[in-house]
# Entry
Amino acid sequence: MSLQERYEEHHRAHRDEGDFVFVPERIPLFVAAIGQGKRVLDLGCRSGALTRHFLEGNTVVGLDVDAVALQRAAALGIEPVQGDVEEALPFESATFDAVVAGELLEHLQFPDALVSEIERVLRPRGTLVGSVPNAFNIQNRLRFLRGKPPEKDPTHLRMFSPGALRELLSSFERVQLDFVGGRYVRLSDRLFAQDIVFAGTSRR
# Structure
């Protein structure tokens, strides 16, 4: 089974979940980091549930391996491009003001290769914004203590701690991490947050 077929099958089983944004607290952080009047690349955009929140005032290209999801994204006004983020991005260098990678890096075998490609397609002083699950929150730690896998999603290949995320993004300047989502996040963001949102600026 190809990667496209695998993800289309996985997304088909969760198709309704693609119509809303998991951890909606991410939205204002993404919108603020991107701004307006930008050419934006959204990697792994699926049906555009998150993308549509920063579509107004921007030109947005959405890349995804799932052709069915891309049809729905195109209906929102997103320029669809079918492709695999584990391969070289099909864009010329320095062509985007911002690149979005929301809930994507955890799915990759080699996230460092994608980060390098993101740097290549970003214009000088361009913005990278994205998010990953807070893999070491208390729920996952308790699952591990009970002898269960800490991750329930079979498509998650990586687990990111704040330190590992900063190391992955070390080639970017002014990297900011925000812990969001979860009823008790105010008590301890690292223990209770569902997601880590990151933003950084290209050094070029």
Summary: The helical segments are 3-13, 26-34, 67-75, 111-121, 138-145, 162-168, 189-192.
